[in-house]
Amino acid sequence: MNIFSSFRDLLSTRHEVAKNWKAKGKHVIGWSCTYTPEELIHAADALPVMVFGSLESTKLADVHLPINVCSFSRSCFNSALKGDYDYLDGFVTSSSCDNRNKIFDMWRYYVRIPYLHFINTPRSTTELAHDFFYAEISRFKTSLEEICRKTISTAALNRAIQVYNDNRLLLKRVYDLRKMQPPLISGVEALEIVLSSMVTLKEKHNDLLNRLLAEIPNRVNPPKRGVRLLVSGSVMDNTELLKIVESVGGSVVADDWCTGSRYFWNLVDSGSDPLVAIARRYLGKIPSSFMLEQKERFGHTIKIAKQRDVEAAIIFVLKFCDTHMFDAPQLMEVLKDIGLPVLCLEWEHSLSGMAQVKTRIEAFIEMVSGVE
Fold this sequence. Notes:
The chain is α/β, with parallel strands linked by helices. It contains 16 helices and 8 strands. The chain has a domain at 26-152: 3-Layer(aba) Sandwich (Rossmann fold), CATH 3.40.50. The protein has helices spanning 2-12, 14-23, 38-43, 59-62, 71-82, 98-110, 127-148, 154-176, 187-197, 202-215, 240-247, 261-264, 274-284, 294-307, 322-337, 354-371, and strands at residues 28-31, 47-50, 90-94, 115-119, 227-233, 250-255, 312-318, 342-347. The strands form 2 sheets. Strands 2-1-3-4 form a 4-stranded parallel β-sheet, sandwiched between helices. Strands 6-5-7-8 form a 4-stranded parallel β-sheet, sandwiched between helices. Helix 7 (127-148) crosses helix 13.
């Protein structure tokens, strides 16, 4: 279907899309953590774009960083040093892990971006934590108004909430297509759709999602049947690993990545004070691995696995990704307790070692198929 190429094109041309937006005299704000409230950036008439890395060598970043730095953070920093993100008017990150905390300092010293902002994100969702996070979001709003030279009105926030909630609901409908046997969209296609939503104007993305949902029932070339898999683990900003999985007999029908279901699962309460509602949504969403509420995230993982008749799970942990490395053993036990075979793989954010990764995935899928 041609509609899938539209999402793929948004990903491959994301830098040009952002530059075209900036050519209109508007601001482009990069972000690196899903605890960044994009609605505020949108309400300031700026374009929020997630900063992705690449799978190429990180020679420029290696000059400044020790060897035990998360390869995703290293790759994003390398892309910035290369000049891939020179068009950014600002860069925002959050205290989601030690790597992001310290590499923010590296961005400040070595990347020429006019505006940088750090959001202190609590590790819990107590009322005291919510109060603190609301103050952080208010501080972020004030700084955006200064850099964008625009007052963020209540009406603009409400409009942004509606647009983003629409996107989340549409993405949920797209994900529901994976419940079918065989699923109507592949894991690679689903990831491309979510990633593309992070780098383009949400209104445009909503139009494409509506078109996809209208056309998909008539799809003549659905994905092939395969072992129905759940994937989990560290941030995933490219589709290479899923291409491998689905090339050797896997069918990725569920995920709990921060760049997957956890990105859009929770809505903002549109009936309350918009700034309060935004703050509560982001801190209270399906938690990432750095949060204390592990039980809630594992509950989400189990729920989507059961809803989609998952047969096995693969956990992809980036090398030196401390939060997910601590999380993985417990997540493996939780998944095994509901009867799922689990494969845990450590990988670098690069193309090196992909042959060995493919061998292990292929053997795992063959093992699961053999059990059946």
